[in-house]
Amino acid sequence: MDFSSIWTVTYNVLLVILGINALIIVHEFGHFAVARFCGVRCDKFYIWFDFWGLKFFKVKWGQTEYGLGLFPLGGYVKMLGQEDNPGELRKEIERAKQQGNESAGTAENTDGNAAALQVAALQEAVFAPDSYLAKSVPQRLAIICAGVAMNFLFAVVCATGAYLIGFTSTAPAVGSVVPGSPAWEAGLQTGDKIDTINGAKARTFSDLQMAMVGSEKGLQLTVDRRGEKLELRPIPRKRKSELAPMIGVGELHTLDLAVPEKEPLYPIFAKYYASETINSLKQKKVRIEKVNGQSVSDYAAYLDALMQHFDKPVEMEFQGVEGKKTIPAIPMREIAVRFQMGTITSVLPGSDAEKLNIVPGDTIVAVDGDAGFNPLKLPQILLRKVNAGQKSVRLTLNRHSGEKQEFDVQLSPVRILPALGGLSMREPLASTALGLAWNVEPVLETGERVTGIEFIQSVPLFRAKTSFAEKTPDGVLIRNIGQTIDVPYIFTVLLQGARSIEQVDGKDVLVQQVRLCLEDKDGKMRTQDFPVTDAADWFNTDRGLLLASYKSVVHTENFGEACWLGTQKMLDSSLAVYSFLKGLFSGGVSPYALGGPVLIVQAAYDVVSNGMGHYLIFLCLIGANLAVINILPMPPLDGGHVVFLLYEGIFRRPPNELVQVVLSYAGLFLILLLMVWVVSLDLSCIPRW
Questions:
Q1: Is 36 within a domain?
Q2: Distance of CA 616 to the CA centre of its chain
């Protein structure tokens, strides 16, 4: 690693540390500043905690001791008379008073002076003019709420700075559409540019992601489709084993190669390309201009042109590269088995299939009289028919009612195939031309059920620990098929890029063998190995070229507009947290979707690497998150103290001491339990899937 790389890493780490600690400092400064304004004496102001007196340093300035504790778990301000458990303080005062009275009546008692001093000290904490407990309820409310208010203000300042500096982000536009997803059912298509989300202007793709949480009634999207304005309403949906509701869209790409001078295509596809073609693409800037002589203006047009010749080599022309280049058809990798067709999971609204009353629960058993079709390959089987100009297809269905029927279904001339994007491991397959999505059952045509799939001599398939994949002496075994992970994801995603632990000439090679764990109808188990081969009739649709994401620049030079946008960003981020928490309690969001301090630090480092604008937006998001969490009405959070103070203000007396004690310890226990949970998720001690 050279000096510049070391400096970049060091700089990014320092920014992460500075940003996270800034969140703590502004929160505690809010408490401190309002406390001093109200005349409360502050004995300590610490960043991080100094448990057992352990600290990096301390300095006394006036009546306050400032310091940096040894334990990086937050920070605190210690005010005179403040206790996390006020009931305990009052108990101690009464005990000390009683002890003092008893001591005063016994001249021989040498502890009388000590007890009296203790009483005096404790009474001072309550009754001294500069004590926290001596202040009025409104003043104490202001002190407690000041930390949260500062976090909200800090979030606004960070977001305002981000909009003034400007940042480049993934644009709110549709690239891939997941088969059978809410986006597919709502009619979203590749190339759609999202103008507004629920009436608010969409500026980044993350705006769409944030809006998905807590939108049970659906998202109101205004999209621009090649100049035509459309109103669409996808309803986010969470399948079993998924972490959160999704509509099922991926980012849009441009026609520019992402980093052509370093890597013009996915390395695993390089073997299909001529060396001359790869070398010719290694230029500073390369853009796709034509496919088989047909000009392509955007990603959707490019995919449509490819889909016309998805199973054949094409001639491409590139800006910045001389001459035409032959781009090969890249076969999918498969094993010699055929899985059973599952039931139809969804029907595209407005399609001919819907008009013919084909419904979820029906099962396709033959396509144009062919009962031996492979359901994994059915999208491309139908695409061939569309490319050949076929207007309709005859489907033989086993209806959900038990009868068998035939239908002549009109084919829509849509070539772009819905694509599994890794957003879920339980996505079905679909054909927009046919208007149907379907499952693929983990059952072979022999009737044997596949209970496990082992990738022989494979490196781990997932970066984090999962509940269904484990390392074995022979490779990686996948279980829970049909429950946590489905056949389409295994064979159209995992198998295509599964790398072997062995290398050839120092380069990665793909897994060459798969072992199926099979169970027959009598419960008898066996295993069978299958070689992985290149399919002759099933092809990768993107040709392996690495294309850049479609980006938008978010920037304003108007300070007033930046403040408005910053405030709106803070509000949106805060509402997203409430929606997330609501989803946790309603079951709409999985508790496995939670992230802890390790995940925050990792995300912060990734964001810092993308520039100062992204960094400030991230601090806005985290600041708003911390503010919302801290104001929740649960002791010992600030929101819990607010509840106690509101009770005192309404009823003119503090809450019952026993109630405060029980609630405080219960809240602390829940917070500690939550911390153990999220850190365990972060460290993969508990698998998310």
A1: no
A2: 19
- Alpha-carbon distance of 221 to 580, in angstroms, equals 21
Q: Is there a domain that residue 384 lies in? A: yes
Select from 288, 316, 331 the last residue of a domain: 331
Q: What is the pLDDT of residues 25-64, one digit of tens each?
A: 899 889 889 988 988 888 888 888 878 888 888 888 888 8
Would residue 217 count as lying in a domain?
no
The residue out of 270, 304, 331 marking a domain boundary is 331
Q: Give yes or no for a contact between 567 and 222, defined as CB atoms under 8 angstroms apart.
A: no
Distance between CA atoms of residues 420 and 493, nearest Å? 8
Cα separation, 247 vs 180, in Å, equals 10
Same domain, 473 and 524: yes
CA 63 remoteness from chain centre:
46
pTM score: 0.81
Same domain? 400 vs 458? yes
Q: Which residues contact 62 (CB under 8 A, 6 or more apart)?
A: none
Q: What is the largest CA-CA distance in the chain?
A: 111
Cα–Cα distance measured from residue 395 to residue 388, given in angstroms and rounded to the nearest whole number: 18
* The amino acid at 2: D
Structure tokens given for 580? 């997330």
Q: Would you say 624 and 577 are in contact if contact means Cβ atoms under 8 Å apart? A: yes
> How many other C-beta atoms can be found within 10 angstroms of the C-beta atom of residue 586?
10
How many CB atoms sit inside 10 A of residue 126's CB?
Answer: 16
So what's the pLDDT on residue 422?
63
Q: Is residue 202 part of a domain?
A: no
Q: Which domain holds residue 478?
A: 336-536
DSSP class of residue 53 equals: G
**Range list of β-strands (E), 390-510:** 392-398, 404-410, 429-431, 436-444, 449-456, 469-472, 475-478, 499-504, 507-510
The crossing angle, in degrees rounded to 10, of helices 86-104 and 657-682 is 130
Q: Are residues 527 and 630 in the same domain?
A: no
Which DSSP helix (H) or strand (E) runs through 291? strand 287-291
Single-letter code of the amino acid located at 443? V
Total domains present in the chain: 4
Q: What distance in Å separates the CA atoms of residue 291 and residue 656, rounded to the nearest whole number?
A: 77
Question: Cβ(174)–Cβ(209) under 8 Å?
Answer: no
Query: Residue 447: left if φ>0, alpha if ψ -120 to 50, beta else—which one?
Result: left
Spell out the alpha helix ranges (H) of 166-234: 182-186, 205-212
Q: What gap in Å lies between CA 353 and CA 349, rounded to an integer?
A: 9
Distance CA 613, CA 565 (A): 14
CB atoms inside a 10 Å sphere around CB 278: 16
pLDDT in tens, 347-359: 999 999 999 999 9
